[in-house]
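ok, trying the design again with the full structure, not the truncated one.
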């Protein structure tokens, strides 16, 4: 089989959260030139998405019922039931939007008011707040911008701009007649036209126009414009006619694309001279959503200058589109033919940005060209805009103030063709805004994006044929989340798929979030990668693959999240739409893997062998890859494995050499080289690796403080060797029975001269024990017993009395274990860093020095019991530091096998002076120093 990929250019900016400055360069420049500037102020808290979904959820059953009734009436062709169902849906939509506005006012109205009060106090005028997005408009003194920039409530401040309108074979050329022939004319739909006004009395539009004037208070407009919502320029009426106008005898080819549209919302935002105002656009948008059921917005205006990558106007429009499920169609602009000439909001992510294709030569689509004046992409940040091209040159449509038609040219005339197409698709059952965009981009004449025409010329004939070949779903908010579909590409045909999703406003408006999603075509039997589209700048991915063989080719389409993104709301995923060019593209699961390993609970050091089984419960066979074991730090072993059929399983045997004993946590993982991102499966388990059973062996027995080769009764003793214990720990409270010290820890016990010692610390190489009370001196046997056996008898030298101070190491030097009354360690200052306080002793200080082997106290406690009452030693004692006698204020028992001497430091010059201890006439051989400083 020979197949060939259709080469796609990688286009996509960074995904995830994209922070932007609070004030952009255009506003800063204006503030330097003008004393006052009109601004839009976006606040940080933006809860409208959650509020809208909550209001929508309250009406979920009503929406579902009405949608089902509408779908049934469209399928049957019954006109009246269709209109009734559409009316119900429109009423539900308006109720939901209005409830969202009320809820937003309750939640953030006080924040808006607080900001408005501060603005007014600072000298701002024309201050008002928006109702569907947490934003305020005002004309502010330029000096006030610095204060606003530092305001914690404010996310971003943008300049209110003066913009310009972006100025019949055309509807037939688009392929709209395929919809008309099937009875789809946009009936029941409402389209909002944000423009210079609409002539409500024009014969092509009469009876269907409602709306308001949003330039009534704009001193830049002439007085007549401020008095009427009508169109004194002609631009808006022409746009509305292209969307929904009826043709007549004077213009038999002037029929609008969706001439059956039931209602046109007229949001007048422009003046008779063609000037349009960005703040008026947003105000009109809110009114259109609250006062009509419009889900399709046409905006044929924008900034004359090339727009920055992500200005405030584009960000707010993206957010409103995402929250309220809108299809927003925008003229690309008329600043071509140079590259990167798109204005704002034409460069916004979520809109459909439309270029102007000149269709005058003939109905032959192959002869059409993009008009030189049509603005070109990409955006300033390199994104793929415009999205699509539609007829925009010498377009016949309604002429304001007359009953006739006129001819106009520009991307303004191209955009309404797409808005009308959206109305046709909604009536034909493609109602979701993502599905509409995906279908339009996937059915153009050409695939792969171009800076002049976007994804190609709009082809409604194809869109009509492929209108049922779209799917919607969600990607979970985790990296690697994916969806799979199975498809068959006929012999000699090309297959195309387009995925679309929204860029959305973060919980705080400091960032807009874009999920990085990639699209792949894979061979169904081999899992081989046939084509990919994996850019990271856009919220559109399109991919194509041509089957050049004489037989059908089975493939799998994979949509996969390249980053985690974030949950838009608790528990929600990323909505997307996928349009494809072939029928019978069905969602499939998998492969879905489960399984585990069956190792023995305990194995010995050396070669370890056991098997693991993997089961595939998905709809697709895996294509093979590797199974592996890891211990959290490294991979232990990896096996190559073959395919696993659906509902099939595979067993693989692992072998590795265990070099150390103990409990080992392992993870069994599987990486599949085909349909899913690796790793696709992982299961944890543990095994215990044991050393061969060997008896303990003693190599040394020494004093626990001086480490001299001698021991004494009731004195701490250190035993060294190998295999002395299976664990490493000290005694804990649970090891005591009453006031009895433990004679065994974890199965480890010690006998000295045949009597049990008290076990404090165990490890494989060292034990610390307290010798029993025993008057025997001379050579005595020491023996260790564990669960694996009994050690050799080690002969130790035992004396009657063996006093010695304990010690610790600080700054690389061994010192006597001493503390002054303030609790610091007697050691050089800072010897323990921040871990413990330390300082040298000073002449006259009373320091406590601890030791062992000092004999009993006057309140005798047997060595096997916890010392509950401390008391003086029965034997006399003396001490010196640096050879100078040091008076002992107290000498007594402090704990089991532990003695304490409170010593007054003599008058010594600074230095490290050896400490000498004598008890009962026996002087210690171990003389650790005490640091002294004045």
């Amino acid at each position: 089989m020979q197949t060939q990929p259709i080469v796609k250019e990688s286009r996509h900016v960074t995904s995830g959260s994209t922070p932007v400055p609070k004030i952009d360069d255009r506003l800063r420049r204006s503030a330097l030139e003008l004393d006052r500037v009109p601004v839009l102020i976006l606040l940080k808290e933006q809860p409208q998405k959650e509020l809208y979904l909550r209001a929508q959820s309250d009406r979920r059953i009503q929406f579902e019922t009405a949608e089902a009734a509408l779908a049934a009436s469209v399928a049957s062709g019954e006109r009246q039931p269709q209109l009734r169902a559409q009316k119900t849906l429109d009423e539900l939509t308006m109720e939901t939007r209005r409830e969202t506005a009320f809820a937003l006012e309750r939640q953030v109205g006080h924040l808006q008011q607080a900001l408005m009060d501060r603005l007014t106090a600072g000298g701002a005028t024309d201050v008002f707040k928006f109702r569907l997005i947490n934003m305020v408009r005002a004309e502010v003194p330029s000096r006030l911008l610095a204060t606003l920039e530092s305001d914690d409530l404010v996310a971003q401040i943008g300049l209110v701009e003066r913009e310009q309108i972006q100025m019949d074979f055309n509807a037939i050329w688009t392929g709209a007649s395929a919809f008309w022939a099937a009875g789809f004319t946009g009936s029941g739909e409402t389209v909002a036209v944000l423009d210079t006004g609409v002539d409500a009395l024009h014969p092509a539009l009469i009876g269907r126009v409602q709306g308001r004037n949003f330039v009534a208070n704009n001193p830049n407009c002439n007085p007549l414009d401020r008095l009427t919502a009508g169109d004194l320029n002609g631009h808006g009426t022409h746009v509305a006619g292209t969307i929904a106008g009826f043709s007549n005898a004077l213009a038999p080819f002037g029929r609008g694309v969706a001439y059956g549209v039931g209602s046109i919302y007229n949001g007048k935002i422009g003046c008779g001279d063609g000037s349009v105002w960005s703040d008026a656009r947003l105000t009109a948008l809110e009114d259109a959503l609250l006062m009509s059921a419009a889900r399709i917005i046409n905006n044929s205006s924008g900034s004359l200058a090339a727009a920055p990558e992500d200005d405030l106007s584009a960000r707010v429009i993206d957010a409103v589109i995402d929250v309220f499920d809108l299809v927003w169609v925008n003229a690309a602009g008329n600043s071509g033919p140079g590259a990167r000439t798109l204005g704002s909001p034409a460069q916004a992510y979520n809109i459909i940005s439309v270029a102007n294709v000149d269709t005058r030569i003939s109905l032959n689509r192959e002869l059409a060209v993009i008009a030189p004046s049509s603005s070109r992409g990409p955006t300033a940040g390199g994104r793929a805009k415009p999205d699509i091209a539609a007829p925009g040159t010498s377009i016949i449509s309604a002429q304001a103030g007359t009953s006739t038609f006129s001819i106009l040219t520009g991307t303004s005339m191209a955009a309404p063709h797409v808005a009308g197409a959206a109305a046709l698709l909604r009536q034909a059952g493609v109602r979701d805004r993502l599905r509409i965009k995906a279908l339009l981009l996937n059915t153009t004449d050409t695939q792969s994006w171009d800076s002049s025409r976007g994804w190609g010329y709009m082809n409604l004939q194809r869109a009509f044929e492929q209108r049922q070949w779209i799917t919607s779903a969600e990607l979970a908010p985790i990296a690697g989340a994916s969806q799979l579909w199975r498809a068959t590409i006929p012999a000699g045909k090309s297959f195309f798929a387009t995925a679309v999703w929204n860029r959305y406003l973060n919980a705080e408006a400091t960032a807009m979030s874009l999920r990085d999603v990639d699209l792949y075509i894979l061979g169904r039997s081999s899992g081989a990668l046939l084509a990919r589209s994996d850019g990271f700048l856009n919220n559109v991915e399109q991919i194509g693959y041509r089957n050049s063989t004489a037989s059908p080719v089975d493939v799998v389409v994979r949509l996969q999240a390249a980053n985690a993104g974030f949950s838009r709301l608790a528990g929600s995923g990323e909505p997307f739409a996928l349009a494809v060019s072939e029928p019978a593209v069905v969602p499939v699961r998998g492969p879905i893997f489960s399984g585990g390993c069956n190792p023995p609970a305990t194995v010995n050091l050396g070669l370890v062998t056991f098997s693991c089984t993997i089961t595939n419960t998905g709809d697709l066979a895996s294509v093979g890859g590797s199974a592996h074991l890891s211990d959290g730090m490294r991979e232990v072993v990896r096996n190559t494995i073959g395919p696993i059929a659906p509902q099939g399983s595979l067993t693989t045997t692992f072998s590795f050499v265990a070099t150390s004993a103990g409990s080992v946590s392992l993870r069994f993982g599987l990486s599949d080289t085909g349909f899913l991102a690796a790793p696709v499966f992982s299961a944890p388990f543990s095994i215990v690796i044991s050393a061969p059973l060997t008896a303990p062996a003693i190599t040394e027995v020494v004093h626990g403080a001086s480490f001299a080769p001698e021991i004494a009764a009731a004195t701490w003793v250190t035993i060294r060797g190998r295999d002395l214990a299976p664990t490493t720990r000290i005694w804990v409270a649970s090891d005591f029975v009453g006031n009895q010290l433990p004679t065994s820890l974890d199965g480890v016990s010690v006998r000295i001269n045949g009597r049990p010692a008290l076990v404090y610390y165990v490890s494989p190489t060292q034990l610390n024990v307290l010798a029993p009370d025993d008057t025997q001196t001379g050579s005595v046997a020491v023996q260790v017993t564990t669960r694996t056996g009994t050690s050799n008898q080690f002969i130790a030298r035992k004396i009657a009395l063996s006093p010695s101070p304990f010690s610790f190491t600080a700054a690389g030097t061994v010192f006597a274990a001493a503390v002054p009354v303030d609790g610091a360690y007697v050691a050089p200052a800072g010897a323990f860093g921040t871990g413990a306080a330390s300082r040298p002793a000073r002449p006259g200080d009373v320091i406590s020095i601890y030791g062992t082997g000092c004999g009993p106290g006057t309140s005798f406690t047997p060595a096997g019991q916890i010392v509950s009452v401390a008391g003086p030693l029965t034997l006399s004692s003396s001490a010196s530091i640096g050879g100078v006698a040091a008076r002992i204020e107290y000498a007594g028992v402090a704990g089991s096998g532990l003695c304490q001497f409170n010593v007054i430091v003599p008058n010594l010059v600074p230095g490290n002076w050896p400490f000498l201890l004598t008890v009962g006439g026996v002087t210690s051989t171990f003389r650790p120093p005490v640091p002294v400083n004045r």
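Keeping the full-length input from now on. Confidence is low (pLDDT under 50) at residues 1-17.
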